[in-house]
Inverse folding.
């Protein structure tokens, strides 16, 4: 009987970022980078290998990867072992996600209502499909819509080979701005000359220029994606009536999932979980070994029953984790039942939070961490600091003014709150200022925050619990002790990978303009 040997990494924090399948794949690619006759892999051997990795290939070129590595490793001839190789791979993967998220952030019906014209003639039948499309797919649909109107015979399926001759861009610009376009731009036979004319025309429309003629001709997918986005050139609008409270929870869960470091990136939560695969990845992250991957089907999945099988396994594991799943079946997820999906994800997120807190006192034989333990900790922390605020539950309406959380943050880090900026919270404007400041201070500390100011103002108990828990988690890591009756945790008992240093805080501050999920990804990488 053969024995299986996994790929081991000495740093537990780094090991936790990958599955064994990913580690074996990366190890194979790393070894393949070694030049014939060489004893070691050098830094300069890495760019061709790293550029082809999923997530990096879509956004960064080999030249850009090389530039990043040269800034990190001045001596490109120095040798590198497999474990240090994993760290720049993680950072580059995150960087590629940040770039793509920034570029695609406004590409949705809410911020770009002009996209509705893509389905204006089908009596609304295609609107639901359009909403579920990933932003880059939506951009392709928009581009082909206008190309068809302009008389372009081909269909663009990607932002590399299909646009490298510049012809599609020429037709697109002639449809969007005929007053600035010329026949020579389309009729030119030289791809480089056509690409040059395309960019000159785009500049007349005040499109942001991300590419050069060379980038178009060479078919740089990441830069052509940015160029396609710049031609939409539309202004954001206010929220549509279809916005509902569930959308805030969807946002929070989506950011949380993307911060876990799983292989799949979630663009549209309700659509992306319907195959069950994303949920299985999350479950495997939260409860390692719980998923039977031999019985799982990876997207793209053509046969519907395979999706049901995946989701049935999700339900089975959820029940093993004691989730409340009465009368819930896998097909409910396949059908996209938003209420049941959100309920399941909340239980999953809550379990993850409680596990993290429990791990900080893992040496003890106490009962499981509960919501009540978090509430008691928060009230005691505020009381110990000499403040008088207190909440009875995570539904306590007094939370709305923001004062309790500001006092809690001040209790865990005395100088972090600037009290001259704190309002009394007597009206909606003051409540929103306090809520916004709470999130800013928590992120500055290095807490993982996914909620919005409105969640605090409206006292959303789920989001209030997650905020309290993440402050508690940060505090226990910092102080190295969990105080309970007759029990304490020494700093030596904390997992080494859980430590947070000053560099983490700096990264969090620098990334504050991005959404919470990106901040958490950076924090996870540097931890």
């Amino acid at each position: 009987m053969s024995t299986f040997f996994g790929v081991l990494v000495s740093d537990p924090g780094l090991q936790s970022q990958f599955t064994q399948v990913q580690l074996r794949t990366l190890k194979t690619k790393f070894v393949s980078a070694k030049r014939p006759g060489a004893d070691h892999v050098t830094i300069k051997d890495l760019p061709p290998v790293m550029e082809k990795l999923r997530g990096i290939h879509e956004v960064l070129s080999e030249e850009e990867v090389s530039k990043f590595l040269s800034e990190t490793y001045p001596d490109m001839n120095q040798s590198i072992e497999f474990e240090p190789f994993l760290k720049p791979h993680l950072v580059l993967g995150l960087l590629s996600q940040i770039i793509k998220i920034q570029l695609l952030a406004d590409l949705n019906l809410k911020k770009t209502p002009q996209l509705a014209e893509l389905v204006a003639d089908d009596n609304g039948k295609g609107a639901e499909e359009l909403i579920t499309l990933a932003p880059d797919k939506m951009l392709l649909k928009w581009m082909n819509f206008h190309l068809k109107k302009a008389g372009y015979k081909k269909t663009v399926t990607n932002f590399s080979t299909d646009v490298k001759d510049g012809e599609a861009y020429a037709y697109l610009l002639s449809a969007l701005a005929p007053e600035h376009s010329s026949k020579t731009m389309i009729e030119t036979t030289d791809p480089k000359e056509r690409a040059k004319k395309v960019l000159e025309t785009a500049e007349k429309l005040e499109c942001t220029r991300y590419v050069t003629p060379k980038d178009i001709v060479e078919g740089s997918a990441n830069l052509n994606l940015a160029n396609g986005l710049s031609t939409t050139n539309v202004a954001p609008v206010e929220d549509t009536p279809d916005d509902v409270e569930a959308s805030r929870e969807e946002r929070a869960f989506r950011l949380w999932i993307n911060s876990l470091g799983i292989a799949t990136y979630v663009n549209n939560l309700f659509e992306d979980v319907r195959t069950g695969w994303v949920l299985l990845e999350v479950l495997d992250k939260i409860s390692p070994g719980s998923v039977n991957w031999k019985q799982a089907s990876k997207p793209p999945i053509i046969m519907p029953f395979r999706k049901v099988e995946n989701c049935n396994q999700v339900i089975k594991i959820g029940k093993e984790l004691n989730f409340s799943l009465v009368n819930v079946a896998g097909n409910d997820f396949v059908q996209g039942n938003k209420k049941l999906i959100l309920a399941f994800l909340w239980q999953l997120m809550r379990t993850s939070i409680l596990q993290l807190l429990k791990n900080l006192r893992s040496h003890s034989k106490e009962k499981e961490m509960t919501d009540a333990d978090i509430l008691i900790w928060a009230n005691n922390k505020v009381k110990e600091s000499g403040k008088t605020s207190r909440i009875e539950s995570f539904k306590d309406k007094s939370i709305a003014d923001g004062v309790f959380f500001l006092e809690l943050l001040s209790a865990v880090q005395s100088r972090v709150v600037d009290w001259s900026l704190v309002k009394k919270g007597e009206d909606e404007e003051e409540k929103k200022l306090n809520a916004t400041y709470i999130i800013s201070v928590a992120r500055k500390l290095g807490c993982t925050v996914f909620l919005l100011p409105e969640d605090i103002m409206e006292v959303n108990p789920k989001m209030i619990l997650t905020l309290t828990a993440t402050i508690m988690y940060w505090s226990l890591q910092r102080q190295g002790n969990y105080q309970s009756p007759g029990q304490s945790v020494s700093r030596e008992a904390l997992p080494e990978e859980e430590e947070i240093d000053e560099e983490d805080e700096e990264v969090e501050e620098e990334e504050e303009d991005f959404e919470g999920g990106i901040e958490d990804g950076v924090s996870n990488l540097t931890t």
The first helix runs from residue 12 to 15.
